Amino acid sequence: SDDPAPTRTDHHEKGITMDVDLTGKRVLVTGGTRGIGRGIVLALARAGAKVVTCYRSDSEAVEGLVKELAAIGGDHHVLKADVSDPEAVARLVDETEARLGALDVLVNNAGVISHVPFAELPLDEWRRVIDTNLTAPFLVIQKALPLLREGSSIITVGSRAAVVGIPLRAHYTAAKAGLIGLTRSLMKELGPKGIRVNLVAPGVIETEEFEKASPEELERVQTRYRGLTGMGRLGRPDEVAGAVLFLASDLSAYVTGETLHVDGGI
Ligand code: NDP
């Protein structure tokens, strides 16, 4: 044909096709209204799952997600719950039980990023970042345990940063590295119950945060990060979602305790 061969950029911009069937699976995803979490929620809903997700503060992103889920169709719920607050987590899990009954998949995605030189890092900021990125998955997993059963899958969103290290993010990388230990121990504690526990560790993913930057700043950041990856480009939320679908499905029935890096080869 006269059509030019597709370029790597064409392929990247088209998005990926996900054929995993999760019809009827009951799923809770924390922090699903923006960025990677939103990509995960939409991919799970399109795969046929019933999804409960939560967010921390009201925004246009919440309404946007509700509309997109309504367009996909199915049994989905978007709830307000700060996962760093134990009482809010208890209410979230109770509401999830009331709406879905039990859980086949739990995705701990909610997280906050922060950039502060270590020498100036205030204890409050250390605590805020540890609370949301490490303590929240502990709270959510522990509270949701009675809803999980043989064959259930727990997936937590970690970060490539946990093993490569990043300046100005000692608190963030410490929290994300903590998730590796949490995952490895739960692999052994929950394995006998038939519950799998894994991490997905994204590299640099283009989320709405990037859209806030000026064109010059965006170009500078993109060039810097592109150069760090083997594939020469940044990732997209749906590419992280692809790894989550794999770990949520029976395709990964014998995979537990793993960290699946989704980073284009950093
Ligand atoms: P975003 O800031 O784009 O989105 C975060 C989502 O989580 C929002 O829906 C936000 O809701 C929600 N959230 C944040 N804190 C809480 C909370 N305490 N309780 C409930 N919901 C909360 O983040 P990303 O998509 O960039 O990141 C998602 C995950 O991926 C995080 O764990 C992050 O560490 C990890 N990650 C991201 C990378 C990237 O390049 N983007 C790279 C590696 C890891 P609200 O809008 O209400 O605040």
From TrEMBL:
This is SDR family NAD(P)-dependent oxidoreductase. The lineage of its organism: Bacteria, Bacillati, Actinomycetota, Actinomycetes, Kitasatosporales. It comes from the Bacteria. Residues 1-15 are annotated as: Disordered. Pfam families: adh_short_C2. Residues 25-203 form the Ketoreductase domain. SMART domains: PKS_KR (SM00822). Belongs to the short-chain dehydrogenases/reductases (SDR) family.
